[in-house]
Amino acid sequence: EDFTLFSYYENGDAYKPHVDECIVSICIWLWKEPKRFHGGDFSFPDFDIRLKVQNNHAVVFAGSILHSVDKIQMLPEYLNKGFGRYSICNFLNYRK
Asked: By the 8 A CB rule, do 29 and 58 touch?
């Protein structure tokens, strides 16, 4: 079974280190240009790897690998207007 999660990150939002309940994870990053936030980078802590997110890019990895998302920082004038970081994550062979 596959599963898709659509997420939106704004000021202060992050995702703590975790593993996914699937065989393969695919995460796509999107935002409105020009970029109006800082942070939101993707990390693999066990391997000391940090991926600087880029608009309309994706990463594919084994769901069993520990990963996280850094905190988003935005100026108050951009809050609640959809200027944050969007992600679409597909979990292949999702296990409940």
From this structure: yes
